[in-house]
Amino acid sequence: QVQLVESGGGLVQPGGSLRLSCAASGSIFRLNAMGWYRQAPGKQRDLVAIITTGGTNYAGSVEGRFTVSRDNAKNTVYLQMNDLKPEDTAVYYCNVRDTGYIPPRTFWGRGTQVTVSS
After folding, report:
1. Half-sphere exposure of 89 (CA within 13 A, CB side)
2. Which is nearest to 59 in space by CA: 89, 88, 17?
3. pLDDT tens readout for residues 88-104
């Protein structure tokens, strides 16, 4: 099993910034994809950003404002969020896919709340 611990959420005013972190631990073999999803009240969980060995991918609504990065030595993925908007308010979940498992397995964090409000 891989355990994921997220941090960095909170309350921020519109136009502000936050940086989320997600540290993976446990039985890690090969973390291929690492990324972030979010879920607002009453809505489905959607992809925000993902980083793989091949590059990055962003939801259109966050492109240019959010940046996903990773530190492979620390098994950690980050999400730098700038110019935050009220519509970014959601629970943000870390997600990783370990292709060292047969078959590959996906793991989720418990989520961290991000609230954008004046």
Report:
1. 12
2. 88
3. 999 999 999 998 899 99
Amino acid (one-letter) located at 8: G
C-alpha angle 48-4-56 in degrees, rounded to nearest 5 = 30
According to DSSP, residue 8 is labeled -
* CA distances in angstroms from 87 to 1, 5, 75, 84, listed in the order given: 33, 24, 29, 8
3-state class of 17 per DSSP? coil
Task: Say how far apart CA 83 and CA 50 lie, in whole Å.
Answer: 19
- pLDDT average, residue stretch 100-115: 94
Q: Which two tokens stand for residue 65?
A: 């404002």
Interval 12-70: pLDDT, tens: 999 999 999 999 999 888 999 999 999 999 999 999 999 998 899 999 999 999 999 99
